[in-house]
Amino acid sequence: MASSHHLCAIVAILVLLLNNRGKCIATQPQLGIKAEPTITEIQQAFTSNKLNSTQLLHLYLHRIKKLNPTLRAVIEVNPLALHQAHSADLQRIHKTTFSPLHGIPVLLKDNIATRDKLNTTAGSLALLGSVVPRDAFVVQMLRRAGAVILGKATLSEWSGFRSDACPPGWSARGGQGNNPYVLSATPCGSSSGPAIAVAANMAVAALGSETDGSIICPASVNSVVGIKPSVGLTSRSGVVPISPRQDTIGPFGRTVADAVHVLDVIVGADPRDNATIAAAKFIPVNGYKLFLKLDGLKGKRLGILRDPFFIFANGSLRTQVFEGHFKTLRRKGAILIDNLEIANLNLVRSEMSGETTALSAEFKLALNAYLSELIESPVRTLADVIAFNKRHSNEEMLSEYGQDTLTISQNTKGIKKREKRALLLMSLLSKYGIEKLMKKHKLDALVTPGSAITPVLAIGGYPGISVPAGYEKDGIPFGICFGGLRGSEPKLIEIAYAFEQATKIRRPPSFLP
Ligand SMILES: *[C@@H]1O[C@H](CO)[C@@H](O)[C@H](O)[C@H]1NC(C)=O
Ligand SMILES: *[C@@H]1O[C@H](CO)[C@@H](O)[C@H](O)[C@H]1NC(C)=O
Ligand SMILES: *[C@@H]1O[C@H](CO)[C@@H](O)[C@H](O)[C@H]1NC(C)=O
Ligand SMILES: *[C@@H]1O[C@H](CO)[C@@H](O)[C@H](O)[C@H]1NC(C)=O
Which residue spans traverse the membrane (predicted)? Predict the structure, then answer.
């Protein structure tokens, strides 16, 4: 026994030495808390005085310093973060009840406005130096809960709306964000930085935004939990937009519970975003955390869309992994309705769905409105942004990546006949597609791998949750997505949480080249 303990100690020291020499693996200050703490564990450590918010923040600043040169997940660190952590610690002396986010460092995608020393640029140099009128509503909610605003996370520039040639996770300000599991693999976008940072434990949690796939996809490939809320559940005011009809703000966490704790704080009605007033009826009085139930799969009716989603190579690792998951879902009491099909799915997933047409016109209107509200800004219109990119073509890598999506949008003239037809087509595709299917089979959720379902969720403003589901042989992660009808977050959270607890797939990043 004694000698084997001795051997273990030597091996542990060797591993430590090797890790210290490796560039990618950060050593961190020793604290009374495990390496990847959950929000609940942190709050317990706070309460028992094993840890305070200032110490926790130092740990995250340390990890950002070590890992960010490799991962490029963070554009800016908040110079006031230490001050906020200190205030949170002082408040603990006098107060007794706290939000679960009190003293917790949270990162924001760089399209989410803060009225402080941080810039809000959607990754573009064109917005550097702009001054926003106020914090985004979701940031106001985070601050009210006592969260520490850690900084801004990288993204696909303009949330992926500049050009199809722009690589996911790349922006002129942030450079190329990298997947912490396999550095050469895509981190996906557009909320790449928030997903990478949470995966690599450079923040406890982060906010991203999704118009079509921008939370679900990076969550899937970076092996974190991402919640894309129903449109209107979270306010978009103060967020650099693509389309008020499809945009939604949602959390990333390493666990379903962490993401849900953040969701509970950021949902709510905002007079500056009318969609939130209509969606407020969906918000449960006692919060979403009540739906973190171990038996959450019991009696849930889950629709499996095989074709084209589960067509992997025969006998592939993924096929085996998902077949295993289906067994687990059944074992935990879910009723699987297999081999379902959404009507006109190929049309929904194609360029002909009307989505591109509508988004082009909506982006111009929404962006111009956002820019016109800024207190100061180098650009006031989409036309200014396009001209800026031409003037700064080197820094914005214009010849490599272009700005086709921006110029196509600039050429639109509002919501005219063509756009109205596109909007009508999308609402019909939703009504006779996913809505009809879910009602016919009385489904609680649809189950799909990765992020291929996102156009369906996007055009109808439907919610989805991505949970880690496995890893390819080469180490690249993949997720499982549970999607549902508007306002079905309570059910989706029950399903996602019970699945996560039954499988516990996520493991820390491997930093493979
Ligand atoms: C946080 O904890 C550290 C270590 O115990 C201590 O030095 C520091 O004063 C604490 N900070 C606050 C604001 O309580
Ligand atoms: C915001 O951008 C300006 C201009 O580049 C820079 O000087 C400043 O440091 C940035 N703010 C933060 C918090 O990084
Ligand atoms: C919200 O709706 C009201 C009433 O229809 C309208 O006057 C107002 O301009 C809308 N606000 C926004 C931010 O869209
Ligand atoms: C897998 O094998 C079955 C039976 O041989 C075949 O019908 C099916 O088309 C194959 N699927 C793929 C994706 O190769």
Answer: none
- Does the structure show a pLDDT above 70 at 18? no
Residue 303: beta bridge partners?
Answer: 337, 446
pLDDT for 29:
53
For residue 12, pLDDT beyond 50: no
**Which protein residue has the closest C-alpha to ligand 4 atom 2?**
314
Ligand 2 pocket, CB under 6 A: 76, 79, 117-119, 128-129
Contact 84 CB / ligand 1 (< 6 Å): no
For the chain, how many residues are written?
513
- Catalytic one among 53, 66, 109, 192? 109
**423 within some domain:** no
Residue 89 CB–ligand 1 contact under 6 Å:
yes
- 190 annotated active-site: yes
d(CA 482, CA 497): 11
Q: Is 336 helix (H, G, I), strand (E, B) or coil?
A: strand
What rounded mean pLDDT belongs to the chain?
93
Instruction: Please give the average per-residue pLDDT across 147-176, as a whole number.
Output: 98
Answer whether residue 14 is part of any domain: no
> Given the CA of residue 274, which atom of ligand 3 is nearest to it?
1
Q: Is 191 a catalytic residue?
A: no
Centre of ligand 3 to C-alpha 230, Å, is 20
Provide the CATH number for the domain around residue 275.
3.90.1300.10
Sort 242 into a burial class: Cβ within 10 Å, 0-12 / 13-18 / 19+.
Answer: buried
Please say if 130 is a catalytic residue.
no
Structural tokens at position 2: 């004694």
Q: How confident is the model at residue 283 (pLDDT cuts 50, 70, 90)?
A: very high
Mean pLDDT of 483-512: 97
Ligand nearest to the CA of 314: 4
Count of alpha carbons within 13 angstroms of residue 284, beta-carbon side: 15
For residue 267, what are the β-bridge partners? 234
The structural domain count of the chain equals 1
Ligand 4 atom with the smallest distance to the CA of 311 is 13
User: Is any atom of ligand 1 closer than 6 Å to the C-beta of 86?
Assistant: yes
Domain residue limits at 51:
34-303+343-417+445-503
pLDDT at 25 over 90: no
Can you give the pTM of this predicted structure? Answer: 0.93
